[in-house]
Write a structure and sequence with these properties.
The longest helix is centred in the N-terminal third of the chain and has 12 residues, at about 75-85. Helices cover about 15% and strands about 30% of the residues. The chain contains seven helices and 17 strands. It has about 325 residues and is α+β, with helices and mostly antiparallel strands. The chain has three domains: about 5-30 and about 105-205, Outer membrane lipoprotein wza domain like (Outer membrane lipoprotein wza fold like, Roll); about 35-100, wza like fold (2-Layer Sandwich); about 215-325, Outer membrane lipoprotein wza domain like (Outer membrane lipoprotein wza fold like, Roll). A hairpin with a 5-residue loop joins strand 13 (about 215-220) and strand 14. The strands form four sheets. Strands 2-1-11-10-12-8-9 form a seven-stranded mixed sheet. The protein has a five-stranded mixed sheet with strand order 14-13-17-15-16, with helices on both faces.
């Protein structure tokens, strides 16, 4: 995969494009409340200790008292600490090491399945951008990953905004490094513009997409209800995950219902007698497998969807399609 392209938006007249491996996006670690530190002063064992940055951003050392740590890099904090120690020690040489980083919290908004704060404890492994997207449920099928927005706070308290093109990371052949995220980062995934389309099969296979999508399979299947289906799966795969068809299933007239990006309901009749098809399932799809003797989808929907009466309207208009194949099994 290719290295994601990143645009640094400093102001409208100064926009710089850098790679995700640029030091701009991989700065030194910024200390904060909850970090566990190891502090050592060569030749002065009484100042060698393990401590945790307090909620007010300070640590406490013998004789010199409180020292501000939060908002500084380890090098900056080491320099400040050394200056404070020079008042009471001769040529102090201090080292500062982060033993246990604090749990990070980032905010993920826009076209993800579960927008909101994502905590470091929810991330699997290294806190990366793709891990944050997965913890937020993965991207939606309407996500424009060509311009992912990242706002990051710097050590001086100022914020910097970036635009990251993740599409390049999955649409070419060169290897890529995932972007590390930091505490306080804000990530926004915008929607695709009107008429814009990305390769959804490629998106479904990417690490940014959800591991499964929710599909409701009802009617003549062994385990009707909502099922979790891998992205990019076929309609027949969803039926199989729902336990497969019953002996009374009329597989030649399976109803496939979807709400498109414009908010309109699409209704189709699919022949699944071979238990194979090329229709790609999406989150929120509804699949209705009728009985052989059923002559009305509304009758079937009333039986299998109640008390979810709000779904009855989506099957209106299917009866003619069902009756067109009365001689099918």
């Amino acid at each position: 995969m290719a290295m994601p392209t990143v645009t640094v938006a400093q102001n409208v007249s100064n926009i710089t494009t850098v790679s995700a491996a640029s030091p701009m996006l991989q700065p030194a670690y910024i200390l904060g409340a909850g970090d566990e530190l190891s502090i050592a002063v060569f030749g002065y064992d009484e100042y060698t200790l393990t401590t945790t940055v307090l909620p007010d951003g300070t640590i406490t050392l013998p004789l010199i008292g409180q020292v501000q740590a939060s908002g500084k890099t380890t090098d900056q904090f080491k320099q400040d600490l050394t200056e404070r120690l020079r008042a009471i020690l001769v040529n102090p040489a201090a080292t500062v090491t982060v033993l246990t980083p604090r749990p990070i919290v980032v905010n993920v908004a826009g076209e993800v399945m579960r927008p909101g704060p994502v905590r470091g404890t929810d991330l699997q492994g290294t806190p990366t951008l793709s891990a944050a997207l997965i913890s937020a449920g993965g991207i939606t099928r309407n996500a424009d990953i060509r311009q992912v927005y990242l706002r990051r706070n710097g050590p001086t308290g100022t914020s910097q905004s970036y635009t990251i093109n993740l599409w390049e990371a999955i649409s070419s052949d060169n290897a890529s490094a995932d972007l590390l995220i930091q505490d306080g980062d804000s990530i926004y995934i915008p929607p695709l513009g009107a008429g814009e389309v990305l390769d959804r099969q490629l998106l479904a296979r990417s690490s940014f997409s959800p591991a499964t999508v929710r599909v409701r399979v009802v009617g003549e299947v062994t385990k009707p209800g909502e099922v979790q289906v891998p992205p990019g799966s076929s309609l027949s795969s969803a039926v199989a995950i729902a336990g497969g068809p019953t002996e009374d299933a009329r597989l030649s007239r399976v109803a496939f219902i979807r709400m498109n990006e414009q908010g309109a309901v699409e209704r189709r009749i699919i022949d699944l007698r071979n238990l194979s098809d090329a229709n790609e399932i999406q989150d929120g799809d509804v699949v209705i497998v009728p009985k052989r003797q059923d002559t009305s989808f509304l009758q079937l929907a009333g039986r299998v969807l109640n008390p979810l009466g709000s779904l009855l309207g989506i099957v209106e208009g299917l009866d003619g399609l069902l009756n067109n194949g009365n001689n099918d099994n």
